[in-house]
Amino acid sequence: MSKQFDVVVIGGGPGGYIAAIRAAQLGFNVACIDEWKNEKGGPAPGGTCTNVGCIPSKALLQSSEHFEHANKHFADHGITASDVKIDIAKMIGRKDTVVKQNNDGILYLFKKNKVSFFHGRGSFVKAAEGGYEIKVAGAAEETVTGKQIIIATGSNARALPGTPFDEQLVLSNDGALRIGAVPKKLCLIGSGVIGLEMGSVWRRLGADVTILEGLPTFLGAVDEQIAKEAKKAFDKQGLKIELGVKVGEIKTGKKGVSIAYTNAKGEAQALDVDKLIVSIGRVPNTIGLNTEAVGLQLDERGAIVVDADCKTNLPGVWAVGDVVRGPMLAHKAEEEGVAVAERIAGQHGHVNFNTIPWVIYTSPEIAWVGRTEQQLKADGVKYKAGSFPFLANGRARALGDTTGMVKMLADAETDEILGVHIVGPQASELIAEAVVAMEFKASSEDIARICHAHPSLSEATKEAALAVDKRTLNF
């Protein structure tokens, strides 16, 4: 007999497990179904983010940054470190430990909040009286029935046509996080978040890294001034980034991967590398969901069609995160998961897409929220801009990292903050102040008049706000 639940969540990534926990906190009887497995075959909830995305990539970025600091920057502090070596197996093992700690933490939260967890792949069977019947294909097949269904099945890496991932030579983000030794030569196709972060990890560890990007501009979604500053830093570090390329035939063999492409000038090029990481985006994951059994509507990309409230075309069925429209960001999925749980409870769940922050965890870090200067120009919005370089920030000098700046954009008439863009140290943390300010419709003057600790990197944000009105305190 099928087990009955008020809410059944399919997918245990950031959108799914957060939705399940919030629904349980609101008094519902909740089940969460997730199929991710650890190396022993046990449950590993947390989705792409925890298992092969946000969390493990940050662990490797941290390890590789320590290694580079020891080799190149400790001497600046009077610290002598000779014959510094990296144990790749231990680094990967630490990454795996960090992932497992997060997996176990989610399982603990399920237990604490009385969420029933089912380990297996969830798929629709049919509409049932008062809800939907869901099959769980795990170690033992079983079915559950939910009055409300929340789909949070995430996304999968997009492969190049004709070049499938083998995770040995041609790698997705999954294989890129499990490389067992530093490749002498590494190519990444795609200069987005994954390409830049993984390229940075293996460059720091000694690989000769080339990034091929099809678009003619670098980080087109980022404010142009910030993107140019970041590009200069990456060039200086030795990341070889080629823009405007067209990738041709890719061959794999015993010696590695051969990539044929034409550069921005239309000249034929060839590149031989040990490994190739393909990071050209992600596609919504509806594989095996059996959407046709209940008539769930998908769009031309394979994403589940939802309205502004994450409702699908079926009554009582919702979808959140990477499997629906909008940015494929873990924190966006979390916000939608909470909002849907609250809407099911009759509350007014809310997600403001205009204040969702973006972060690239390279060095320098890149973070932004709101609109870019080029977007404001295209929309005909009258604005004021102010910026402040970390070169003039005392805390950045003490850190030994003065790369980059903070840039603020505000409405020319009302002074409301329209966008904040940062490239530099700890940008991922600094952007939070801008998100809070924009959520409360703050003006640049509000930021300028708030007391910031001295010395701190956040003073650069205050200085950028002052610069909007052509003022400065020059800390």
Explain what the structure shows:
With 475 residues, the chain is α/β, with parallel strands linked by helices. 31% of the residues lie in helices and 26% in strands. It has 13 helices and 21 strands. It has helices at residues 14-25, 47-52, 54-73, 88-112, 173-176, 193-204, 224-237, 330-344, 373-378, 394-399, 427-439, 444-449, 459-468, and strands at 3-10, 30-34, 116-128, 131-138, 142-151, 155-157, 170-171, 185-189, 208-212, 240-242, 246-253, 256-262, 268-273, 275-278, 282-284, 317-319, 358-360, 365-370, 383-389, 405-411, 417-424. The strands form 5 sheets. Strands 1-2-3-4-5 form a 5-stranded mixed barrel. A hairpin with a 2-residue loop joins strand 11 and strand 12 (256-262). Helix 1 runs parallel beside helix 8 (330-344). The radius of gyration is 24 Å and the shape is globular. The termini are far apart. The relative contact order is 0.11.
How are the SSEs placed, and which strands pair?
Layout: E1 3-10, H1 14-25, E2 30-34, H2 47-52, H3 54-73, H4 88-112, E3 116-128, E4 131-138, E5 142-151, E6 155-157, E7 170-171, H5 173-176, E8 185-189, H6 193-204, E9 208-212, H7 224-237, E10 240-242, E11 246-253, E12 256-262, E13 268-273, E14 275-278, E15 282-284, E16 317-319, H8 330-344, E17 358-360, E18 365-370, H9 373-378, E19 383-389, H10 394-399, E20 405-411, E21 417-424, H11 427-439, H12 444-449, H13 459-468
Parallel strand pairs: 1-2, 1-5, 2-3, 5-16, 7-14, 8-9, 8-14, 9-10
Antiparallel strand pairs: 3-4, 4-5, 6-15, 11-12, 12-13, 17-18, 18-21, 19-20, 20-21
Helix pairs in contact: 1-8, 3-4, 3-6
